[in-house]
Design goal:
It is built from three helices and 14 strands. 38% of the residues are buried. Helix content is 19%, strand content 37%. The longest helix is centred in the first third of the chain and has 18 residues. It is an alpha+beta fold. It has two domains: 38 residues; 151 residues, Glucose Permease (Domain IIA) (Distorted Sandwich). It starts with 6 loop residues before the first helix and ends with a strand.
Length: 210
């Protein structure tokens, strides 16, 4: 059975728990702070199972969070042209696992170092540290997902590499402690979400391609 907590969370929580035990011998209140930090870390790194909707035309959400932007971009690498973009802001209370929007293979991956602006700001899409992952299906349809670090996030994880195959809704990465995830799709994609809507990674339908 898959653990409900991502292994990254156990590593950090273990360190915090050790500090909690140590500081409890010095100060009861200080110890409590670290015990609370341990509990929150396990909560933050929760990794629930999701019901993935089935359908060749569906593009599912790559992340949990709030839709903060729906627009078009003139040129997007990997898609090699204009694209529709849906931007999702993840607070520290959202699940931070990233999931593949479509079935296919990882055909592009590019990391860009940068700043750590608040992830809900539009300029975070350009200036912040980010990792772009491009997925291409058997018909040549392409989507690009950007994992963007936020004000608190200081580490982007991606455990898929070019050539790896993914299923729609499959986990491919993680961003630590507050972030932004963007999905870029060809202009013929019909967007199914609205500004302000909350979505769940892997289970919410972001768009339909046909």
């Amino acid at each position: 059975m898959r653990s409900p907590i991502h292994r990254e969370g156990y590593v950090i929580a273990g360190s915090l728990l050790t500090l909690a035990v140590i500081f409890s011998t010095i100060s009861r209140w200080l110890g409590r702070i670290f015990y609370l930090a341990t509990a929150f870390t396990l909560y933050f790194f929760r990794d629930p199972e999701r019901d993935i909707p089935q359908g060749d035309c569906l593009i599912v959400s790559p992340a949990d969070g709030k839709v903060v932007g729906i627009d078009s971009v003139e040129h997007v690498p990997f898609i090699d042209g204009p694209a529709k973009r849906v931007s999702i802001f993840l607070s520290i209370f959202d699940v931070h696992i990233n999931r593949a929007p479509i079935q296919g293979k990882i055909a592009y991956r590019h990391y860009t170092p940068g700043e750590f602006l608040a992830a809900f700001e539009p300029k975070a899409s350009i200036n912040n540290e980010q990792n772009a992952v491009g997925i291409e299906d058997a018909d040549g349809y392409r989507v690009l997902v950007k994992q963007i670090a936020g004000l608190i996030a200081r580490r982007i994880l991606c455990w898929k590499n070019p050539g790896d195959k993914v299923e729609a809704g499959e986990r491919f990465g993680l961003i630590r402690f507050g972030s932004r995830t963007e999905i870029y799709m060809p202009l013929n994609a019909h967007i199914e979400v609205k500004l302000g809507q909350r979505v769940q990674g892997g289970s919410s339908i972001i768009a339909r391609r046909c």
